[in-house]
Design goal:
single chain, alpha+beta
Length: 97
């Protein structure tokens, strides 16, 4: 199970209406943003890459949905089948330290 991220103020990163405004530099803040973004996906559902992109585009404003998609995958929030272009939420999220 992923570690709980605590004591991180995301008010300068996530707007009051829930839009990620920028990609943070600090690893702890990045993981907190990924913790937030993964809540926009439903466990047990398979998403086509274009669907993942559309969801991420809706929830950020800095224009790099591919970065967010890669970070979700690289940090074990999502898994994928590259041959089919399908993504899904990992059952036991465990971000890299």
């Amino acid at each position: 199970m992923k570690e709980e991220i605590t004591n991180i103020n995301l008010s300068s990163i996530i707007s009051p209406d829930g839009i990620v405004l920028r990609w943070p530099r600090k690893k702890e803040e990045k993981l907190a943003v990924l913790d937030y973004l993964i809540t926009k996906f439903e466990a047990g559902v398979e998403y086509k890459e274009i669907q993942v992109n559309m969801i991420l585009k809706k929830w950020h404003s800095f224009g790099d949905h591919a970065l967010l998609r890669r970070e979700l995958y690289d940090n074990f929030y999502m898994d994928r089948n590259p041959e089919k272009g399908i993504y899904w939420v990992q059952k036991n999220n465990s971000p890299k330290k």
